[in-house]
């Protein structure tokens, strides 16, 4: 019987000695989009699945089916509270998956939607979430084509969890991957950062910052289409959700083996986000977003792509924030307002748990 059992994972080859080798149980940081998450996927899930499509861990896999190229993505949403300024778990469930497809240049088409409900949750709450999903799907131009519902015993869930998966078509000539960044690429962010994480935290913790901060949750397919209309040669797109802009840039730098040099003065941090982060000891670069993207664009196309972004409602606050360089491959470095530089490392776990 013993020889039929799969061998235990070999921890000796893991690259990060602290978080996983010495931690025999899952912690919240494993779902935070940082180092813990990437090591869990790299050393546990990917070897077990053995799928070449997982290489590079893109937001969505681009697959060939017949003569078409399809983008395919799935995501689960466990945000608390379920409703927050600017959105809800329903909006996140649609926009999060639609945006993952868009980061491959795909035109989203269909979604699946699965509910995991806790016994005792009010039907009115479930209906509000379902209505939000329907409205967000219509706004994003996709249809919910299939789904599932499960109920767990009271005390074994958190009201409502949602999983969505999506498929979309990738246009001919579009090849957007996390390993396509090259030195000389210009790094553009589509607007102010940190709004979603601070908005969720303010409601969950009952914090007041003097102004109302709303999530930026939105579908980005239209913005990506406007960018692709300028040139199909966009090298990398990423929506900086868990782990924020810092995590997204570090993933791209590592995948492409390039250095990223940020200009800290250029980062579009809204005053209300900056004030909230200063009060709480957070770095806005690590705070989650749900309606923003980071683009790595060839320098010769950067000005035209930026102009197209600025002309779109979801890119009106777009800015060039840095560039790819030959120096320090795999690392992200920020030049401060005083001319010094600092390393912007990948987060270990997550500053703000349960934000999506």
From TrEMBL:
BP-aspect Gene Ontology terms: protein maturation
Superkingdom of source: Bacteria
InterPro entries per the UniProt record, alphabetical: HypE (IPR011854), PurM-like_C_dom (IPR010918), PurM-like_C_sf (IPR036676), PurM-like_N (IPR016188), PurM-like_N_sf (IPR036921)
Residue intervals of the PurM-like N-terminal domain: 59-170
Stored Pfam families: AIRS (PF00586), AIRS_C (PF02769)
Ranges where the PurM-like C-terminal domain occurs: 183-328
Family, as annotated: Belongs to the HypE family.
Classification via PANTHER family: CARBAMOYL DEHYDRATASE HYPE, HYDROGENASE ISOENZYMES FORMATION PROTEIN HYPE
Name of protein: Hydrogenase maturation carbamoyl dehydratase HypE
Organism: Kitasatospora viridis
């Amino acid at each position: 019987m013993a020889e039929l059992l799969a061998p235990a994972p070999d921890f000796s080859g893991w690259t990060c000695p602290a978080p996983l080798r010495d931690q025999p149980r899952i912690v919240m940081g494993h779902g935070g989009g940082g180092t813990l998450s990437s090591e869990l996927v790299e050393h546990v899930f990917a070897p077990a699945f053995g799928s070449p499509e997982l290489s590079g861990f893109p937001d969505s896999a681009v697959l060939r089916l017949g003569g078409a190229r399809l983008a395919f993505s799935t995501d689960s949403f466990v945000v608390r509270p379920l409703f927050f300024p600017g959105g809800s778990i329903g909006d996140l469930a649609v926009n999060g998956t639609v945006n993952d497809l868009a980061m491959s240049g795909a035109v989203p088409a269909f979604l699946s939607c699965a509910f995991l409900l806790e016994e005792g949750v009010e039907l009115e709450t479930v209906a509000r979430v379902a209505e939000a999903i329907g409205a967000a799907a219509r706004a994003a131009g996709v249809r919910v084509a299939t789904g599932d519902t499960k109920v767990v015993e009271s005390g074994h869930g958190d009201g409502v969890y949602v999983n969505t998966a999506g498929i979309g078509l990738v246009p001919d000539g579009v090849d957007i991957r996390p390993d396509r960044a090259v030195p000389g690429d210009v790094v553009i962010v589509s607007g102010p950062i940190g709004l979603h994480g601070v908005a969720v935290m303010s409601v969950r913790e009952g914090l007041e910052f003097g102004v109302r901060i709303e999530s930026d949750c939105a579908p980005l397919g239209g913005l990506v289409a406007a960018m692709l209309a300028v040139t199909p040669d966009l090298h990398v797109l990423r929506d900086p959700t868990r782990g924020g802009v810092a995590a997204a840039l570090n993933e791209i730098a590592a995948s492409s083996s390039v250095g990223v040099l940020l200009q800290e003065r250029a980062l579009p941090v809204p005053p209300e986000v900056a004030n909230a982060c200063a009060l709480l000891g957070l770095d806005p670069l690590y705070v989650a977003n749900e309606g923003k993207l980071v683009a790595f664009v060839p320098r010769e196309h950067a000005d035209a792509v930026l102009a197209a972004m600025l002309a779109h409602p979801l890119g009106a606050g777009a800015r060039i924030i840095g560039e790819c360089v030959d120096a320090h491959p795999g690392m992200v470095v920020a030049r401060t307002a005083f001319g010094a530089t600092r390393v912007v490392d990948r987060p270990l776990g997550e500053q703000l748990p349960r934000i999506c």
